[in-house]
Write a structure and sequence with these properties.
The protein is α+β, with helices and mostly antiparallel strands. Helices cover 34% and strands 31% of the residues. It has two domains: 95 residues, SH3 type barrels, CATH 2.30.30; 106 residues, PDZ domain (Pdz3 Domain), CATH 2.30.42.
Length: 280
């Protein structure tokens, strides 16, 4: 009898040992496989990290998809914040003539104070008739008037789109001088809305950074054609300073109005070109 119990005990002990061994084997195998999967998963994330460190041009094309100037707005500007449909039309006596939106720092709007017949470029944070420009979207501007938001919308919108890609290549700079009629400048700048229908302009990016303004769809005989600009040009600077913000665009606008010296740095067909303007 004791011998039977001893045999039974040995069999149970052996079964327990085998059970523990099998479980230990599976535990080690599972841990090993999980370690391999984790390593593969970690390695697979490396390209994503690199890719997000420097977004491709296609990423920014979704942002700068054009409106009247050929630009577009950030996706977050369209979807984030308050519902634009709930905003009341602005009570201010102003008109929206055009918008360029390529990110908060690059966005600006052309707004006219109707009574004064005064047109100007405005960016987020600027003040117009006591209101503050809060957001700039495609064909729309959100204004903070007193303690509430109001919407300013363009009466007519151009729906066509344009895309231009440009690659800078090392080349020497060429210079040209163009004579511009003072009366022609004054006549063109009096009606900014009509002026903007003569060309499509959008912010241009290089390696994810602002790199000037892309010019396309210039109407023959238009003011922009008389300035010597061509389709595909990238206007990168004015008077030796890079165009990187609405303030730089404002400088071009103001200098044209005042007749001050203007020299544009243009990238054309992979070559840098300087265009000097003389007003007469």
């Amino acid at each position: 009898m004791p011998k039977r119990f001893l045999t039974l005990f040995n069999l149970l002990a052996l079964a327990v040992i085998i059970f523990i061994a099998v479980n230990l084997f599976y535990l080690i195998s599972t841990a090993h496989l999980r370690g391999v999967d984790t390593q593969k998963s970690a390695l697979s994330q490396v390209p994503d990290v690199k890719e997000h460190g420097k977004f491709p041009l296609g990423y920014y094309r979704a942002i700068i998809d054009r409106h009247i100037f050929g630009s577009g707005e950030e996706v977050s500007q369209e979807t984030g914040g308050e519902d634009l449909d709930d905003l009341e039309p602005t009570s201010l006596n102003v008109a929206l003539l055009g918008t360029v939106v390529g990110g908060k720092q690059y966005a600006f709007a052309v707004i006219e104070e109707v009574n004064k017949r005064k047109q100007g470029l405005y960016k987020v944070g600027d003040s117009v008739q006591g209101a503050t420009v809060k957001r700039i979207l495609r064909g729309k501007v959100v204004l903070r008037v007193n303690d509430k938001d109001e919407i300013l919308t363009m009466e007519e919108e151009a729906a066509s789109r344009a895309e231009t890609e440009y690659v800078r290549s090392p080349a020497g700079k060429k210079e040209a001088t163009i004579q511009v009629s003072r009366s022609e400048v004054d006549k063109s700048l009096k009606n900014v809305h009509q002026l903007l229908t003569q060309v499509r302009i959008r912010p241009h990016f290089r390696d994810g950074n602002p790199d000037g303004l892309a010019i396309s769809n210039i109407k023959p005989g238009s003011f922009f054609a008389k300035l010597g600009l061509r389709n595909g040009d990238i206007v990168q600077g004015i008077n030796g300073r890079n165009i990187e913000s609405p303030d730089d665009v404002m400088e071009v606008y103001q200098r044209l109005k005042s007749g001050s010296r203007v020299a544009l740095q243009v990238m054309r067909n992979g070559e840098e070109k300087i265009i000097n303007y003389q007003f007469r």
